[in-house]
Amino acid sequence: MIQVPVLKSLLQIIMPSMVAWVDQMEQIVLAHGRPLSSSEISDAVELGVVHPERVRYMIADEIPIPAKELAELVRQAGIADEDVMGIAFRYGIFIHSDVVGKELRLLHDLVHVAQFERLGDIQNFIKEYVTACLDYGFGRSPFEVEAREKSEKVMARQASKTMDKMSYHLIIERALARKERNGGHIFSLTMPQR
Questions:
Q1: What is the C-alpha to C-alpha distance for residues 56 and 26, in angstroms, rounded to an integer?
Q2: Alpha carbons 23 and 27: distance in angstroms, whole number
Q3: 76 or 36: which carries more pLDDT confidence?
Q4: What's the rounded Cα separation, in Å, for the pair 97 and 94?
Q5: Can you tell me the distance from the alpha carbon of 63 to that of 124, in angstroms, rounded to the nearest whole number?
Q6: What is the pLDDT of residue 189?
Q7: Residues in Cβ contact with 120 at an 8 Å cutoff, skipping those fewer than 6 apart
Q8: Residue 32 pLDDT
Q9: What is the DSSP string of the chain?
């Protein structure tokens, strides 16, 4: 395993290639991906995306990993390997077709889109993101922690709304059944016999 200081030095050397690769991947998704739906735009705004109208995403059988010269740094940082299930390239998002819970994956990557926007450009994002992954480990990187926490919070809120709707429909269904049992009245006006 290559030492972290060496990887950070390597990052500076290959930065132009990484920026070009991210830009190329983004262009593919922007050209062939689908725009966010109105509800996905609302989620994106809630997650901090300033320009959700620019975002496109693609469901793909394979997630692109960088060319050989970039692959080692990306693999060592834990960013992308053959098991990656989704990745954001600024406004372009790839989501693997095998992902269970594509909605959560999209929310997670929308947080990364917001991070790209906050950092201003591809180079700044790559530098900060890769450095954080090297310093903290991929799963503990502040970028990944933020993406995980925010996407799970939105997903939980959506699940809560769905549960509220389901509860409402269940209450109505039970009331209608009670109405049928009580001769057309939702509530029985007779006292139970003792």
A1: 9
A2: 6
A3: 36
A4: 9
A5: 23
A6: 41
A7: none
A8: 97
A9: ---HHHHHHHHHHHHHHHHHHHHHHHHHHHHHSEEPPHHHHHHHHHTT-S-GGG-EEEEESS-----HHHHHHHHHHTS-STT--EEEETTEEEEETT-S-HHHHHHHHHHHHHHHHHH-SHHHHHHHHHHHHHHH-GGGSHHHHHHHHHHHHHHHHHHHHHHHHHHHHHHHHHHHHHHHHTTT-SS--SPPP-
Dist CA 148 CA 110 (whole Å): 11
* CB 96, CB 63: distance < 8 Å: yes
Pairing relation of β-strands 86-89 and 92-96?
antiparallel
- Token digits for 39? 């509800």
The answer to whether the CB of 113 falls within 8 A of the CB of 103 is: no
CB atoms within 10 A of CB 89: 24
Determine the pLDDT at residue 186. 43
Strands of the sheet containing 86-89, edge to edge, are 34-35, 56-60, 92-96, 86-89
Question: Higher-confidence residue: 86 or 169?
Answer: 86
Q: Which tokens belong to 59?
A: 């469901």
Q: Is residue 85 within 8 Å of 61, Cβ to Cβ?
A: no
- The confidence score (pLDDT) of residue 112 equals 96
Name the token pair of 82.
Answer: 């053959």
Tokens of 17: 């290639």
